[in-house]
């Protein structure tokens, strides 16, 4: 899979691309990431790519010409034109199902903005898929693009080792439950014990305990993720039933 990142600050990506999982994926030829400096497409002798907004107001706006030139030139650098994504707080939310969709693409072109944003005609002309990683204002789309690349590459076959499969992740396969708690040695630390079931060797009991813990955590922390939750609409927690829960665990005190 090929990523092209269009940015005013290409060096922001160097550290991230040179480390860990992504570095290995690039070395293995599974992922290619090309960064492009939008200023290279400026027609101005000072490499200027922004200007003051028509109508007045604070901040600067990224100009339509260098951005459109940059996107069109970069798009032509490979056989597949690629899906154009703009990282912007105005976009639809990046969720795991959107990440799964993006991971199917052979090529993504990521457009990162700075300042107050892009001239509207960039969007009208190029019709990018506008995506947001969350409801907070970042200084630019670069960190959002890194988040997106990070989430997408781990779904590319071969990027994660067998022992680290993404199949069991929270949020994968639409079952949207949080992770159960994990323990490793030592068994006891400062009086805090590992739940005995995890040491029982009873794989069925362990699987049952983990499902219950996932469900309880989700109910307590993120009830909005549960299937028949009314939380997002009304702010109240629904009382979903699930076949994976024993009666005992359903009777546990609730956090709400
Ligand atoms: O989420 N985003 O894609 C953003 C991009 C630029 C600024 N703030 C954001 N939240």
From TrEMBL:
Protein name: tRNA (guanine-N(1)-)-methyltransferase
Subcellular location: Cytoplasm
GO cellular component entries: cytosol
Any single GO BP term: tRNA N1-guanine methylation
EC assignment: 2.1.1.228
Biased composition (Polar residues): 229-246
Residue ranges the record marks as coiled coil: none
InterPro entries in alphabetical order: Alpha/beta_knot_MTases, tRNA_m1G_MeTrfase_C_sf, tRNA_m1G_MeTrfase_TrmD, tRNA_m1G_MTases_N, tRNA_MeTrfase_TRMD/TRM10
Function: Specifically methylates guanosine-37 in various tRNAs.
Claim: Protein biosynthesis is one of the keywords in the record: no
Catalytic activity: guanosine(37) in tRNA + S-adenosyl-L-methionine = N(1)-methylguanosine(37) in tRNA + S-adenosyl-L-homocysteine + H(+)
Domain tRNA methyltransferase TRMD/TRM10-type: 1-226
Enzyme class: transferase
Biased composition (Basic and acidic residues): 247-256
Matching SUPFAM superfamilies: alpha/beta knot
Protein's gene: trmD
Binding residue positions for S-adenosyl-L-methionine: 113, 133-138
Keywords recorded for this protein, A-Z: Cytoplasm, Methyltransferase, S-adenosyl-L-methionine, Transferase, tRNA processing
Gene Ontology terms, MF aspect: tRNA (guanine(37)-N1)-methyltransferase activity
Quaternary context: Homodimer.
Family designation: Belongs to the RNA methyltransferase TrmD family.
Keyword Repeat: no
UniProt-annotated stretches for the region Disordered: 218-256
């Amino acid at each position: 899979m090929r990523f092209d990142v269009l940015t005013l600050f290409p060096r922001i990506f160097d550290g991230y691309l040179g480390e860990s999982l992504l570095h290995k994926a690039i070395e293995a030829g599974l992922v290619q990431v090309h960064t492009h400096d939008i200023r290279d497409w400026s027609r101005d002798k000072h490499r200027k790519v922004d200007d003051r907004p028509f109508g007045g107001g604070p901040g600067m706006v990224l100009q339509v010409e260098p951005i459109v030139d940059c996107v069109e030139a970069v798009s032509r650098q490979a056989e597949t034109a690629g899906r154009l994504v703009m990282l912007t707080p105005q976009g639809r939310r990046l969720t795991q199902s959107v990440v799964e969709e993006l991971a199917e693409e052979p090529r993504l072109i990521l457009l990162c903005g700075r300042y107050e944003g892009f001239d509207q005609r960039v969007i009208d002309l190029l019709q990018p898929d506008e995506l947001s990683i969350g409801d907070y204002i970042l200084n630019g789309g670069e960190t959002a693009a890194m988040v997106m690349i990070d989430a997408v590459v781990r779904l590319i076959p071969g990027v994660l080792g067998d022992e680290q499969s993404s199949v069991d992740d929270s949020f994968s396969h639409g079952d949207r439950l949080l992770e159960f708690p994990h323990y490793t040695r030592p068994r006891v630390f400062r009086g805090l014990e590992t739940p005995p079931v995890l040491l029982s060797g009873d794989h069925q009991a362990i699987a049952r305990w983990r499902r219950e813990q996932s469900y309880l955590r989700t109910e307590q922390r993120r009830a909005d993720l549960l299937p028949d939750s009314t939380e997002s609409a009304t702010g109240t927690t629904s009382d979903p039933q699930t076949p994976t829960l024993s009666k005992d665990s359903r009777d546990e005190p609730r956090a709400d």
